[in-house]
Amino acid sequence: MSLITMDEFLLEKQKDYIVDEINSILMDATSALLLGQHPIARPISADKIALRKFYYYRLDRTHLIADIQVRVRAPRCHVTFYYSMLCTMDEDFCFGTYGFWMDKPERDELPLDKYLVPYLGWENIEAETENIWHRRLPAVFSEPRWLKAYHLANRMDLTIIQRRLPKTRIRSVVFFQEKTIEVEDDLRQIVEETIPAGTIILNMKVIRSSPSNLLTRMWLMYSKSGSLNQSRICKTMELDERYASVIVDRFIQFHEGSTQNVKVLRDGIVLSYEEAIYAVNDAG
Fold first, then answer.
1. Which of 122, 128, 80 shows the shortest CA–CA distance to 104?
2. 216 vs 26: CA distance, rounded Å
3. Which end of the chain has fewer beta carbons closer than 10 Å to its terminal beta carbon, N or C?
4. C-alpha closest to that of 53 among 105, 17, 109
5. Which of 180, 185, 153 has its CA nearest to residue 166?
6. Which one, of 24, 8, 193, 9, lies nearest residue 97 by Cα?
7. What 3-state class would DSSP assign to 178?
8. The dihedral sign for the CA sequence 210, 148, 110, 56
9. What are the residue ranges of helices labelled H in 101-200?
10. Alpha carbon of 243 to those of 3, 77, 239: distances in Å?
């Protein structure tokens, strides 16, 4: 059995239902008026209704919302809008109309990709990370301290180990089921090892920094002192000056192009960003 996306499933199995629901919306006078259209007298054929983009949001373990961008191109009816379905993913596997909108709905629910795998945008990672800590280890927020990723992993029944993984550039991988994989031993020979379920492997063949630094990035370890939105000071070291330049550039972009807070400490002398750039160009 091949794996298909939710997009493919809806187009193959549910398109007739969706087309019927869209026609019902366009034939209803009130609904059509909300879309800036006159109600249609006859149903529009499926070839004139394009389901263009799909967005999914998790409501709970068995329910999700599918927001579908619809484009209708038919005589006397040219409109693009969003049709929303409520999908029940249990043994009944049923669907129903959730609503329709001129613009893409803004939702607070957890977004899912086309394989219904949850994902987070960068803007939501910090808030979700704090939620995970609160659910698993609420006591750590009682006083300012470093939050240790190993403690969180243990509370989640996960074990973190270090291995050298050949033939891959991934930094870490989670095993939810037991699996036998190839690893490099201390002599750099490839051997097989059975990894238990619930194991996180840090790939030391790829990781240059210490595992604790990697876990800092993986779990967003931070010193808790008041709100997460407060300013925090971070002192870091980069192995390659090119990466350091990228970090500085992104910092400037984050501050709307301002270089006011960018300083360089060189030989005990504090240089502004402009002075540092001039010194580099002059030396080159």
1. 80
2. 52
3. N
4. 105
5. 185
6. 24
7. coil
8. positive
9. 122-136, 149-155
10. 38, 53, 8
Q: Token match 């009816």: residue?
A: 77
What is the domain partition of the chain in residue ranges? 6-112, 122-219, 241-283
CB 54 within 8 A of CB 34: no
The tokens for 243 are 């990466």
Largest CA distance in the chain: 80
Instruction: Give me the residue label for tokens 């991988």.
Output: 173
Residue for token digits 């026609």? 23
Token couple for 269: 């002398």
DSSP class of 16: H
How confident is the prediction along the chain (284 residues), in pLDDT tens digits per residue? 467 889 999 999 899 999 999 999 999 999 999 999 999 999 999 999 999 999 999 998 889 999 999 999 998 899 999 999 999 887 667 888 899 999 999 998 889 989 888 877 777 777 777 787 788 878 766 665 666 777 788 888 888 898 999 888 888 888 888 899 999 998 889 999 999 998 988 888 887 655 554 444 444 333 333 333 344 455 566 555 555 676 777 677 767 778 887 887 777 788 888 887 777 666 55
CB 213, CB 202: distance < 8 Å? no
180: number of Cβ within 10 Å: 8
Nearest to 66 by CA among 49, 46, 50, 89: 89
Burial 235-264 (b: 16+ CB within 10 A, else e): eeeeeeeeeeeeeeeeebeeeeeeeeebee
User: Which residue type is seen at 274?
Assistant: E
